[in-house]
Amino acid sequence: MPLRGFGRNLRRANSGVAISAGSVAKPTPWNDPTARAYVQLEHVSKSFGDFKAVDDISLKIYQGEIFCLLGASGCGKTTLLRMLGGFEKPSAGRILIDGEDMTGVPPYLRPVNMMFQSYALFPHMNVEQNVAFGLKQDGVGKAEIKDRVATMLDLVKLGEFAKRKPHQLSGGQRQRVALARSLVKRPKLLLLDEPLGALDKKLREHTQFELISLQDKLGVTFVVVTHDQEEAMTLASRIGVMDHGEIVQAGTPSEIYEFPSSKFVADFVGSVNIFEGKLIEDAPEYVRIASHELDAVIYVSHGISAAPDAIIWVAVRPEKILMSTEAPGGTENVVRGTVQDIAYLGDLSIYLVKLPTGKIVRVTQPNTSRHAETITWEQKVYLSWNSSSPVVVTR
Amino acid sequence: MNERRSFFVITCLAFGFAFLYIPILSMVVFSFNASKLVTVWDSVNSPTLKWYHVLFSNEEILDAAWISLRVAVVNASGAVVLGTLAGFGLARFEQFRGRFTLNAMTTAPLVMPEVITGLSLLLLFVALEETIGWPAGRGITTMTIGHMTFSMAYATVVVQSRLASFDTALEEAAMDLGARPLKVFFVITLPIIFPAILSGWLLAFTLSWDDLVISSFTSGPGSSTLPMVVFSKVRLGVSPEINVLATLTIGVVTLMIVGVSLWMARANRLAKAI
């Protein structure tokens, strides 16, 4: 049985950025080679005709996790989810859930439930009948069904709506009915296809946290498909970023954000400035990179592995760039530019700074005080960043 | 300007409705006529229910109505079952051998001249009787089969188009919750597409109820349907009873259409709200 609160522990453990930097704060299953995978994908592929929707994915998901599959539409994330649910049969590879081979098992025999993007509530049944449907199929006794449905509806705060039909509910309420219906059978694994996609922004934020606390309470392992990176960051214990049927990087939200393994991941998760360049000095402790886009030298305070002549890319997050009107000390990691555009977002402002080379750099600054609008359009500014901030990617 | 246009629109509407409904209305009025002559209004004794009494004591017409009703009900039920199966196959299975042929063959009766359908059915029934002895003679059975061949096409189209807009996630959700495919069909799919099946049934019923051509080809002695009796009566001159019969038919049809469209409007509203 899953431990209560295990999910939360998983999520807390990954709030330390330090994980991949070396110092492991808390043992997490994905860093523990002896940990038993709860869901295991072995070289799973799926083709539709000539099109490879999922291409040789191997992945381990651990008990109590919220694993998010993040990617643009058409990247294969939904196909992967549907294979876990049994709605698509893999063209190759195996899927194991809790140690059992589930590759060819039809959906109605899997210990897995799914929450559909459209919610797929049965329109001719009321809320109570919708939630009870799964238990009825299993031949659970009437009294127990009534009990479990009532408990579940209370859990999603829909007790008073039990007799309503789906069309009499709001979007948020329908989402909760769908969730209750998929959880009432106590599945080993819950699959969620864009669970919050149909909700408006405020409700979505609120529901994200409700979803996390519910998962915490029940200890069910979640696999979530989403194209919304913010949603993935909030919900996930780990994120698998997908592109063209492959998982290009899997890791905790902070790993994905701070240590993207490729240009694609850096660009897909959050916004980023990417400068193309070449190594000019390669030491184990540091590197110097010349970028024609910056017309400056970038100093990075950690070693990288790249071929000497290869083109590499330096990624710097907008919030990690400092902007000042006076020249900061030093000459490396400093560039000059002109403010071309400012977007005021309330909590922070986005500045687009044009460099002499024509490259536009995105900088965000928190609006810490009310009247501190010191930098304005057409102003000359210095941009600088800490030598530990850039991430160097080779593809 | 606006007022003038609305006046123009109302006039058009009035003329349109007059064109459509005055003949029917006059027929209804004349069904209460006392005169034996259909076109002469007997202002002394009218209105009267005389011809209603005559109609209800006319065994021939009552028998024919009963036959028509039986044929129509069996035909509609059979057509809906076949049509649902065909509609399902066509809507759900994108690719299979002979899909195009099946699609063309099920919808062909929609455009086939009835005389051809009727004649070919007659030839088929005769040939069958000679080779395997069934169906023995022509009558209600052959007529029902004949009606089914073309009304099934209508039922197929109705069910198929409903299934085209059916969210298959509903079926997947039911399977995901542990229901086997056959159960999913009866517990989820069927109740949801039921309005379409019902309208397919009504369509098939109506087609059968007023079919004359195919009935004439496939019926036998003693199995004349209502349209056949009416048609043969009219050839000898229109009797006021026919006015009564038509009035009653219109009454029943109107009630049915109003009832069903109210019910369908409600069902559609529910479906749209999802």
Q: Could you characterize what this model shows?
A:
The complex is a heterodimer of chains A (395) and B (274). By secondary structure, chain A is α+β, with helices and mostly antiparallel strands. Chain A has two domains: 6-111 and 187-263, 3-Layer(aba) Sandwich (Rossmann fold); 271-393, OB fold (Dihydrolipoamide Acetyltransferase, E2P) (Beta Barrel), CATH 2.40.50. Chain A is built from nine helices and 20 strands. In chain A, the strands form four sheets. Chain A has a six-stranded mixed sheet, with helices on both faces. In chain A, strands 13-12-11-14-20 form a five-stranded antiparallel sheet. A five-stranded antiparallel sheet of chain A has the order 15-19-16-17-18, with no helix packed on it. Chain A starts with 5 loop residues before the first helix and ends with a strand. In chain A, 39% of the residues are buried. Mean pLDDT of chain A is 87; it is low at 1-9 and 12-25. Chain B has 274 residues and is an all-alpha fold. Chain B has a single domain, classed as MetI-like (MetI-like fold, Orthogonal Bundle). The two termini of chain B are 42 Å apart. The model of chain B has no long low-confidence stretch (mean pLDDT 88). Chain A binds chain B through residues 85-87, 106-108, 110, 112-114, 116-118, 120-124, 133-134, 137-138, 165-168, 181-182, 185, and chain B through 167, 169-170, 172-180, 183, 188, 191-192, 270-271, 273-274.
